[in-house]
Structure formats: C-alpha cells, structure tokens
Design brief:
13 helices; oxidoreductase; 6PGDH_NADP-bd; 6DGDH_YqeC; gluconate utilization; about 50% helix; Decarboxylating 6-phosphogluconate dehydrogenase; single chain; about 300 residues; seven-stranded mixed sheet; alpha/beta; elongated
Length: about 300
C-alpha cells in the first residue's frame, strides 16, 4: 500500500519510519524541504496511486484547516483524507462536509503514543465509514502496537468519533498525571519519613494497583533529575483537556477530577510547584513536550 503523509515533525516523521518498516510505501510532504519527499502538495497528490490516501499530521486548528482546504481541489472522487492530529471533533464535521461534494471521503484518527510510538506503536481511535476503515486497515495495523488489534485500535464510530475518543483519553491523562504529581509532592515534603522518593515510585511499578506506563515514565524522570531541579513547575495545556470539560458541562456529566487537573495547570503558571514540576517532567517524557528550564 502507498499513502501520502503531510507533516513530518516530531510524530509525523516517526510515523513515516514505522509505516515504512512495516511495508507501507510513504510519500511525505513537509514545509521543511530537508525532510520532504516532494516540493508541493500538488506533487504529493500526483505521486500517489488512485484511490489516494492522504494522512494529515499537522498541528490542530488553522494549520490543519488550511492544509485540507488546499488539498480539496487537488483530489478526486474515491480519495480519502485522514486527519491524525489533535483536532477538535467539531472540526471533523466541517472538513468532511468540505470534501464530500467531490466524492472525497474523510476520516479522523486520534493518535496516542508520543515520541515512543516509533518503537512501541500508536494507540489509534478512528472515526469514519466502515468501508474506508477496512480499505486502509494495513496502515492502521502498521502503526498500532503489536498484539491483539483490539488492544491498540478501535473504530469508534462515524466521522468525529475518533477525535472525540482521543479528547476524553487526554482528559483522563490530565487527571492521572495530576494524581501522580500530587503524590510526589507529598512524599517529597516528608523527607523526615520518606528517605527514598524515587525508590518509592519504582517499587510501585510491579504488582500494585497504580502501576502504569505513566508511572514508569515518572520513575524515569526522577532517575534523571530526582528533585526536578532543572524544570520549572510551569505546565501548558494542549486544548483537549479543556474540550473534555466543555463536553462535560454541555452534557451535564460531572468531571470533577479532570476539571481540577486543568485548574491545577493554571495555578502552575502563577507560582512554582513541586507537583507541577512532576507534571511537566511527565509531559516531556511521554510526548517530548518542551519544559521550561529554571533560570
């Protein structure tokens, strides 16, 4: 199978490498000519066999919107556009509507795995038609982790469902990171009792009910910088946590834990905090997100 991939940044380039490793031919386009296979989007479309599959992996919002708008006149009936970025699910409806008059299908795919996806595979949450999902299943199988398909891939529903599922996933992620971080701060505060904070978290990695990949990454971060001396307790939010809380409000679903984790990030921008240092370190570990260094 041969697909086009737009956006060869931190995740896109790793995805290209994993796809090629698993037998998928990829023609990539990026505004950075040093990593791009073709010079323009038109060249990308011309290089693909029909019906074309074009995966868009660029920052959500205006950039994704402009790429899909620019693609629309270049594509033909039967082609497929997949948005694998972190777009808000409501944007998917707009993009599907834009492409539909030309007979171009649209699919949204929530992607989780961060900078570790090349090695471990990516968790995939897909929204779109059953027919198109089946057509490009070799691509999803190449990207997902090894093991049972249902443990790393789900066809959630129609257009918008994939990004909705990823939005909730990220809301949960916010809350989990905050819980680990608050536990870290309490342990670190009581050094009169707790003589080995890093060792405590490390001992939780096997056999305990709080074991997880996030815990593994927190241990890794602590081993690199046990007191988080080189990280300021300043944490950004990518938008999906906010969207999750908005959906809770719109649907009268109580989300007190996720909501509190987002407000805690706002606190981090006002004063330095050991817990926020832990959250910043975790985001850097799993996603390569930038941390704010201590002056």
């Amino acid at each position: 199978m041969h697909i086009g991939l737009i956006g060869l940044g931190r995740m896109g380039n790793n995805m290209r490498a994993r796809l090629e490793k698993n037998g998928i031919e990829v023609t990539g386009y990026d505004t950075n000519p040093d990593v791009s296979d073709v010079a323009t989007l038109a060249d990308l479309v011309a290089a693909l066999p029909t019906p074309r599959t074009v995966w868009v992996m660029v920052p959500a919002g205006q950039i994704t919107d402009s790429v899909i708008t620019e693609l629309e006149p270049l594509l033909e009936s039967g082609d497929l556009v997949i948005d694998g970025g972190n777009s808000k699910f409501t944007e998917d409806f707009k993009h599907a509507e834009l492409l539909a008059p030309k007979g171009v299908d649209f699919m949204d795919c929530g992607v989780s795995g961060g900078i570790w996806g090349l090695e471990n595979g990516y968790g995939l949450m897909v929204g779109g038609s059953k027919e198109q999902v089946e057509r490009v299943m070799p691509v999803f199988d190449a990207l997902r982790p090894e093991g049972p398909r249902e443990e790393g891939f789900v066809h959630v529903g129609e257009v918008g469902a994939g990004h909705y599922a990823k939005m909730v996933h990220n809301g949960i992620e916010y809350a989990l990171m905050q819980a680990y971080a608050e536990g870290y701060e309490l342990l670190d505060t009581r050094k009169d009792i707790i003589k080995d904070v890093t060792g405590t978290f490390k001992a939780w990695q096997r056999g305990t009910v709080v074991r997880s990949w996030l815990l593994d990454l927190l241990v890794r971060a602590l081993e690199q910088d046990p007191e988080f001396e080189h990280i300021e307790g300043y944490v950004q939010d990518s938008g999906e946590g906010r969207w999750t809380v908005e959906e809770g409000l719109n649907n009268a679903v109580p989300l007190p834990t996720i909501s509190a984790s987002i407000f805690a990030r706002f606190v981090s921008r006002q004063e330095d905090s050991p817990a926020m240092k832990a959250v910043a370190a975790l985001r850097n570990q799993f996603g390569g997100h930038a941390v704010k260094a201590v002056d």
